[in-house]
UniProtKB/TrEMBL annotation:
<dbReference type="InterPro" id="IPR000182">
    <property type="entry name" value="GNAT_dom"/>
</dbReference>
<protein>
    <submittedName>
        <fullName>GNAT family N-acetyltransferase</fullName>
    </submittedName>
</protein>
<keyword id="KW-0012">Acyltransferase</keyword>
<dbReference type="InterPro" id="IPR016181">
    <property type="entry name" value="Acyl_CoA_acyltransferase"/>
</dbReference>
<feature type="domain" description="N-acetyltransferase">
    <location>
        <begin position="8"/>
        <end position="154"/>
    </location>
</feature>
<dbReference type="InterPro" id="IPR050680">
    <property type="entry name" value="YpeA/RimI_acetyltransf"/>
</dbReference>
<dbReference type="Pfam" id="PF00583">
    <property type="entry name" value="Acetyltransf_1"/>
</dbReference>
<keyword id="KW-0808">Transferase</keyword>
């Protein structure tokens, strides 16, 4: 964990950020889950961010000292991607990015791998519950995964109190 204690800047990402966003995903995923197969080249991953995620999702980045250190892509009640560089995990950056998504959606679903204990603990800490587990046959990594779900709690209006006249 890094000892930097400054608050990251949260910024909307554009096409010229997609290479960096894809790189954060790649580094974070392979350092934390080294058993996963490496199925795509960096260029293919950047293309996915540029051609699929950018037109269909809100993509935000967390920057510290002019360096992109975290990224989230979300929309239509789904978090498609949420990655923080390993040296910057545990500093609240993921919570900040997830909080932005939660501000905009009343419910959220996302997939993570069953063996990704850190991600599972993170999502459960933020109120997500496991909804379904699979054997991984339907994902390209063929790795058992779990579907998480979060729903905003309805806000309660204060009950009218009888007057004490």
């Amino acid at each position: 964990m890094n000892d930097i204690s400054i608050e990251p800047d949260i910024v909307a990402l554009a096409a010229d950020h997609m290479q960096a966003a894809a790189g954060i995903r790649r580094v974070s995923l392979w350092q934390r889950l080294p058993w996963l197969p490496d199925l795509h080249t960096p260029a293919e991953e950047e293309q996915y961010w540029r051609m699929h995620l950018l037109p269909n999702c809100t993509i935000l980045g967390a920057a510290m000292a002019n360096r992109l250190v975290g990224v989230i892509a979300y929309g239509d009640n789904w978090i498609e991607q949420l990655y923080i560089l390993p040296g910057f995990q545990g500093m609240g950056i993921g919570s900040l990015l997830l909080g932005r998504a939660k501000e905009e959606m009343d419910e959220i679903r996302l997939w993570t791998f069953q063996r990704n204990i850190g991600a599972r603990a993170f999502y459960e800490k933020h109120g997500f519950t496991a909804e379904e587990e699979t054997d991984g046959a339907d994902n390209e990594e063929i790795e058992p995964d779990v579907l998480y779900h979060w729903r905003r709690r309805p806000t309660l209006t204060p009950a009218l109190q009888p007057s004490s006249n």
